Amino acid sequence: MSESSRKPRVLIADDDEANRDLLSGLLSAEGYHVTCVSNGEEALRVVQHESIDLALLDVMMPGKSGFSACLAIRSEPKTRLIPVVLVTGLTSSDDRIQGIMCGADDFLNKPVNKHELLARVHSLLRLKEFTDELENAETVLFSLALSIEAKDPYTEGHCERLSKYCVTMAERLQLPDEMRVALRRAGIVHDIGKIAVPEHILVKPGPLTEPEWKIMKQHPVVGERICSPLKSFRLVLPAIRHHHEKLDGSGYPDGLAGYQVPLSARVLQTVDVYDSLTTDRPYRKALRPPDALGIMREEVNRGWWDSSLVDELEAFVTGSVPHFAGAGIKNER
Fold first, then answer.
1. Do 250 and 196 form a contact (C-beta atoms < 8 A)?
2. What percentage of the chain's residues is helix, strand, coil (to nearest 5)?
3. Does the CA dihedral 291-307-266-250 come out positive or negative?
4. Do 207 and 63 have their domain in common?
5. Could you tell me the CATH number of the domain that includes residue 174?
6. Over the stretch 46-73, which tens digit does the pLDDT of each residue have?
7. Exposed (0-12), middle (13-18) or buried (19+): which is 221, by Cβ within 10 Å?
């Protein structure tokens, strides 16, 4: 059965067999594939090993409660997007607030009303379908970016390393979670626009001609255009477009100067330059970290890179105490 035509899978966790049978019967009659368990621990095992589209969790269960199971589902990247409905006989506002704090998407009161159950399940499954489509689009972009990287044996692993470096730098700078996610994504897809660059230019061992260089300089613009339809990538786009800018205005594609260059792009370009210097290239062997950092210091003096970010990179590479930990770093325009 294809992914698009498979039955949605609903998990029911309730220690009362009669309740499980009631909910399972109502949902199975609507064509849903239902899995039933009797406690929170079993529910967590199921969501870890099966493809679950929605979870109905009884609040009051022995062992791990519905609140605890919901919180655990939300804390795991693999399961955090599964819609969770808490089924409860509790009616106080404090209980509902606790459910919201645990990450529940909705509530159903006992005794369950059939029409309310089906309406809420249908609504949340539609939302899950949209979320899956966004995740699939992100996966396609990542796959495309890695296929471009694979054309050049000298850049193998470059995107994955940049993604990890970006996240580490974002953590050291104490950037918001949404910026950390954006930088993780940007590390993977920053050069996706190179799909528009002919392969003979991408892998050319010698200097590019002026016409070839003109083509190469368009890849950040193309990359931004490819990723722009995804609203979830709105914070990624500045890093894609501007990671080849320089603080003295001599970069491309827009010739931005100083702190016109967005912070995300400055972080990405800092680790990009470092990774390029410390990996083998057709024209030279990989440099030792101290030598690479020395070259970057020279380029800081030329006005190319953000000195505070190079400081932070050096602290990360050498394992020393963070220079700034977020203080003094200029943010986005």
1. no
2. 55, 10, 35
3. negative
4. no
5. 1.10.3210.10
6. 999 999 999 999 998 988 999 999 999 9
7. middle
Q: Tell me how crowded residue 49 is: count the other CB atoms within 10 A of its CB.
A: 8
183, 267 Cβ separation under 8 angstroms: yes
Burial class (CB in 10 A: 0-12, 13-18, 19+), 167: middle
What would the pLDDT profile of 118-128 be if each residue is shown by its tens digit?
998 998 998 88
Helix residue spans in 173-280 (DSSP H) = 177-189, 199-202, 210-216, 219-227, 237-242, 263-277
CA distances 263 to 118, 219, 256, 287, Å, are 46, 20, 12, 26
Query: pTM of the predicted model, to two decimals?
Result: 0.63
103: domain CATH number is 3.40.50.2300
Instruction: Mark whether 213 and 87 lie in a shared domain.
Output: no
Token pair 């613009």 in the structure block, residue? 221
